[in-house]
Design goal:
Number of strands: 9
CATH superfamily: Alpha/Beta hydrolase fold, catalytic domain
Protein name: Alpha/beta hydrolase
Strand order of the largest sheet: 1-5-2-6-7-8-9
Largest sheet: 7 strands, parallel
CATH class: Alpha Beta
Order of helices and strands: HEEEEHEHEHEHEHEH
Distance between the termini: 48 Å
Strand content: 15-25%
Number of helices: 7
GO molecular function: hydrolase activity
Helix content: 25-40%
Keywords: Hydrolase, Signal
Number of domains: 1
InterPro entries: AB_hydrolase_fold
Radius of gyration: 20 Å
CATH architecture: 3-Layer(aba) Sandwich
CATH topology: Rossmann fold
Shape: globular
Structural class: alpha/beta
């Protein structure tokens, strides 16, 4: 009888441990489309690629900066602590329309119970401008935004654009697209702002591949 009781206790214990382990490992999924099922207890991160990837080729080549490795960036950016959503935008995507789509995605997550502080948008170059537009449309001081070499002439030439919430910026010192400080200075609802520079000598191409110089600090900030 004592042996049977011990077996039952151990079985129940292993079952509980299994449930805890499985629930903690549900994240770490990479989505190419908006997920059909939402877990309100998980985090969601959106990554928006640069202009060169718009179309059908996930690894296009720029004559100056080399190949943009979209699949590898998604692989390295993925993490067990969140779900990664990375759309492959079609050719001639309208940045404002796509930003509205992302803002609607965030609203859907929030309506399904995801906390705004558990939602992050990351964007590089054209994707960075889309991320800024998304922040402008959402106007939430709880959502998080990562801008990778995204404070371009487009952003400067549209002074009505502001960012909100928690903002992290990374730019390359050899690149023509620099600091986002001017954007922060004109934004009245930024909750926190952190910015770092990297110096790889690769100009805009520094973000064409998942270099540890930017991947590591971005993932550290996300977590």
């Amino acid at each position: 009888m004592a042996l049977l009781k011990e077996v039952i206790i151990k079985t129940l214990l292993f079952a509980v441990i299994g449930l805890l382990f499985s629930s903690s490992c549900v994240a770490n999924t990479v989505y190419e489309n908006f997920p059909s099922e939402i877990n309100p207890n998980e985090k969601y991160v959106f990554y928006s690629h640069g202009f060169i990837v718009e179309g059908t080729n996930p690894t296009p080549v720029n004559p100056r900066w080399g190949m943009y490795d979209f699949p590898k960036i998604k692989e390295k950016l993925a993490d067990e602590s969140y779900n990664l959503i990375a759309y492959h935008r079609p050719k001639d995507t309208d940045p404002r329309a796509f930003a509205k789509k992302l803002a609607n995605n965030a609203t859907t997550l929030i309506n399904q119970g995801v906390k705004p502080e558990n939602i992050t948008f990351i964007g590089f170059s054209r994707g960075g401008a889309i991320t800024i537009l998304t922040s402008n449309y959402l106007a939430s001081d709880q959502v998080n935004f990562v801008i990778l070499a995204g404070c371009s002439r487009f952003v400067k030439n549209n002074p009505e654009l502001e960012v909100f919430g928690n903002v992290f910026s990374v730019f390359e010192t050899s690149d023509g697209v620099g600091s986002c400080q001017f954007l922060i200075d004109r934004s009245n609802s930024v909750k926190t702002f952190e910015e770092i520079s990297i110096s790889t000598g690769k100009e805009h191409g520094a973000f064409y591949n998942p270099l540890p110089e930017w991947i590591i600090p971005v993932k550290k900030w996300l977590n």
